[in-house]
C-alpha cells in the first residue's frame, strides 16, 4: 500500500421532472472517481420502479451508452464509486444496495465505516436476517429497513437508525418518492448538496461533483443532519446535530478530496497550500527547487515554495493513463503500476538540491522508489517533506489503514525512515499544525486518530477488513 485508501464517493439527484438522471449521476461519479475505482453503480427511480446497474470497474468502463440507455428516464437516482475498506472486492459488494419490502423499495449508497457493524450484523442474523454481501453497508440498509417497518416515513426510519449506528457514514437514501442525505453526528466524511437552474437537487460527497452537472453549491450537510428532498421541497431534520463533537477526517484536506472541492466551508486547495507553508517553517532546508509528487503533493509543494522562497518546478511527470496505484486491488497489480506511473524530468533536477513534497509515507516502498528515480536523474540532494504527521495507528472510519505493524513510522524513527527511503533529510508536518490546515472550516473539529491514537469513538471489537467473511467461515467450521 503506497497511499491510504478511502472508502468511496456517493451521489444523488432529485430532478425537477422526469429526465435522463442516469447521465447526471454518471458525470457525478466521474468527478468522484478519485475516491474509488474498484466498482461503480447507479440506481434510477422511475415512478417507484428501480433500475439498477453496478459492476467492478470505473464509471467509464461500466456505463456504456447502451447501459445508460437501459437505465432509462427517471426523476430520482443515486450512484456510488467504491474502494472497499470493509468486505471483499467481489461484485456483490458493489453499491448502491437495493431493498424491496412491504413499505416500498429503497436504494442506499454509503461512504465510511461503522465501528459497531460486527455486533449489529450478529444481532440481525440471530433475528433471522440473511446477508448477501460482506460490507457494513448492508448492515445499515437492514437497520433502516427494520426501522421503516415501524415508522411513518423513510426519514423517520433513517433518524431512528442513526441512534443505533456508530462510526462514519455519509448516506444517500432513495425511496419511491424521496431522496435523503444523512451524515453521522461526528461528520467524519464530507457530504453537501446543490441545486441546478431548473430546480433539481444534487447531493454529493464533494462539491466538485456538483460542478460537473452545473449545480450551484448550497451548503454542506451538517454533522448529524438529515436532509429530505421531495416534491414539497427541502426539509432539514437536526435531531442528531450537536450531540457529538465534530470529527471530520483531516486527511480529506491532506489527500482524499479533490483540490477544487470545498468541505465544510474550507477550500481543499488552500488547506494544502497552508500545509506546505507550515512545512517550510517547521523544516527549512537549503535547496534549489521544490517539486511535488504528482498529483497529491503539488499543492503543498507550491505552498512550501512560496513560504521558503525556493523556486517551484516540475520534477516528476505522471502517466495520466495510470490510475491511482493504491486503488488497484492486489499488491502485484499495484507494484506493476508504480513502475510506469512516474518519470523524472532530468533537466529540472540534475545537479540540484531537491525538496520533494508528498502527502504521506505508509510503508516507505514507494517513497524509496521515487527518491531513487530522482537520484538516478542526477539530483544532488533529495529532501523529503510530508504534509501530514506520521501514520502510527489504524483507522476505523473508512480509511484502509488497519495494521500498526505495517506502518513504517511505528517501527522506525524519522532519521531511520530517511535512511531507508534514501533521502538526505525527512520532515513531517506537526500534529498541531495539521489541525489548523482548514482555515474557515465551519465546525473546526477533526479526527486525527491515525496520527495520535485519540479515537472519537470506541474501537471496534473486530478490525479485520473481511471480518464478515471470517465470521461466516468460523460458523461453517463450527
Structure description:
The protein is an alpha+beta fold and 478 residues long. The chain is 31% helix and 24% strand. The chain has two domains: 8-247, Aminohydrolase, N-terminal nucleophile (Ntn) domain (Glutamine Phosphoribosylpyrophosphate, subunit 1, domain 1, 4-Layer Sandwich), CATH 3.60.20; 266-441, Rossmann fold (3-Layer(aba) Sandwich), CATH 3.40.50.2020. The two termini are 34 Å apart. The relative contact order is 0.13.
Mean pLDDT: 90
Number of domains: 2
Q: Strand content of the residues, in percent?
A: 15-25%
As an assembly, this protein is single chain
Helical amount among residues, as a percent range? 25-40%
Low-pLDDT parts are 324-329, 470-478
The CATH superfamily of the largest domain appears as Aminohydrolase, N-terminal nucleophile (Ntn) domain
What's the shape? globular
Secondary structure: elements and pairs:
Layout: E1 8-19, H1 21-31, E2 39-46, E3 49-56, H2 59-62, H3 65-71, E4 74-82, E5 97-101, E6 104-111, H4 117-126, H5 136-148, H6 154-162, E7 170-174, E8 179-183, E9 192-195, E10 201-204, H7 207-212, E11 216-220, E12 226-230, E13 233-237, E14 248-249, H8 251-256, E15 262-263, E16 266-267, H9 268-282, E17 289-292, H10 298-308, E18 316-318, H11 331-341, E19 342-344, H12 346-349, E20 353-358, H13 365-376, E21 381-386, H14 414-421, E22 425-428, H15 431-434, E23 446-447, H16 449-452, H17 467-477
Parallel strand pairs: 14-23, 17-20, 20-21, 21-22
Antiparallel strand pairs: 1-4, 1-10, 2-3, 2-4, 5-6, 6-7, 7-8, 8-12, 9-10, 9-11, 12-13, 15-16, 18-19
Helix pairs in contact: 4-5, 5-6, 9-10
Amino acid at each position: 500500500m503506497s497511499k491510504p485508501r478511502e472508502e468511496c464517493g456517493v451521489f444523488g439527484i432529485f430532478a425537477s421532472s422526469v429526465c435522463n438522471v442516469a447521465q447526471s449521476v454518471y458525470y457525478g461519479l466521474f468527478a468522484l472517481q478519485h475516491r474509488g475505482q474498484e466498482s461503480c453503480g447507479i440506481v434510477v427511480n422511475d415512478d417507484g420502479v428501480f433500475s439498477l446497474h453496478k459492476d467492478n470497474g470505473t464509471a467509464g468502463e461500466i456505463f456504456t451508452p447502451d447501459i445508460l440507455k437501459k437505465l432509462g428516464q427517471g426523476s430520482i437516482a443515486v450512484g456510488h464509486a467504491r474502494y472497499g475498506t470493509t468486505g471483499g472486492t467481489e461484485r456483490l459488494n458493489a453499491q448502491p444496495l437495493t431493498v424491496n419490502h412491504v413499505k416500498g423499495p429503497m436504494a442506499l449508497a454509503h461512504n465510511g465505516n461503522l465501528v459497531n457493524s460486527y455486533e449489529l450484523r450478529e444481532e440481525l442474523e440471530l433475528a433471522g436476517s440473511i446477508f448477501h454481501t460482506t460490507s457494513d453497508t448492508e448492515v445499515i440498509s437492514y437497520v433502516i429497513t427494520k426501522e421503516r417497518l415501524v415508522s411513518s416515513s423513510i426519514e423517520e426510519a433513517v433518524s431512528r437508525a442513526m441512534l443505533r449506528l456508530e462510526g462514519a457514514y455519509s448516506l444517500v437514501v432513495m425511496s419511491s418518492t424521496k431522496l435523503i442525505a444523512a451524515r453521522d453526528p461526528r461528520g467524519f466524511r464530507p457530504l453537501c448538496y446543490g441545486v441546478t437552474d431548473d430546480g433539481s437537487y444534487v447531493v454529493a460527497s464533494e462539491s466538485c461533483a456538483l460542478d460537473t452537472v452545473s449545480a450551484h453549491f448550497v451548503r454542506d450537510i451538517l454533522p448529524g443532519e438529515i436532509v429530505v428532498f421531495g416534491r414539497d421541497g427541502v426539509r432539514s431534520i437536526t435531531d442528531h446535530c450537536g450531540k457529538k463533537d465534530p470529527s471530520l477526517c483531516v486527511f480529506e484536506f491532506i489527500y482524499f478530496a479533490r483540490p477544487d472541492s470545498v468541505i465544510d466551508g474550507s477550500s481543499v486547495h488552500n488547506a494544502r497550500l497552508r500545509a506546505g507553508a507550515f512545512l517550510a517553517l517547521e523544516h527549512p532546508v537549503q535547496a534549489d527547487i521544490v517539486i511535488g509528487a504528482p498529483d497529491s503533493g503539488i499543492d503543498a509543494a507550491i505552498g512550501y515554495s512560496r513560504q521558503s522562497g525556493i523556486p517551484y518546478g516540475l520534477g516528476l511527470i505522471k502517466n495520466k493513463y495510470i490510475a491511482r496505484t493504491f486503488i488497484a486491488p492486489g499488491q502485484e497489480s499495484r507494484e506493476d503500476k508504480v513502475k510506469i506511473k512516474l518519470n523524472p524530468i532530468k533537466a529540472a533536477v540534475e545537479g540540484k538540491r531537491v525538496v520533494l513534497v508528498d502527502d504521506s509515507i505508509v510503508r516507505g516502498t514507494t517513497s524509496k522508489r521515487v527518491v531513487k528515480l530522482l537520484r538516478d536523474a542526477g539530483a544532488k540532494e533529495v529532501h523529503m517533506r510530508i504534509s501530514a504527521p506520521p501514520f502510527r495507528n489504524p483507522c476505523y472510519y473508512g480509511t484502509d489503514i488497519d495494521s500498526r505493524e505495517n506502518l513504517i513510522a511505528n517501527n522506525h524513527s524519522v532519521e531511520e525512515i530517511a535512511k531507508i527511503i534514501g533521502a538526505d533529510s525527512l520532515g513531517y508536518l506537526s500534529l498541531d499544525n495539521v489541525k489548523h490546515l482548514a482555515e474557515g472550516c465551519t465546525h473546526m473539529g477533526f479526527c486525527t486518530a491515525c496520527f495520535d491514537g485519540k479515537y472519537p469513538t470506541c474501537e471496534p471489537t473486530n478490525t479485520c477488513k473481511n471480518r464478515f467473511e471470517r465470521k461466516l467461515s468460523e460458523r461453517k467450521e463450527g
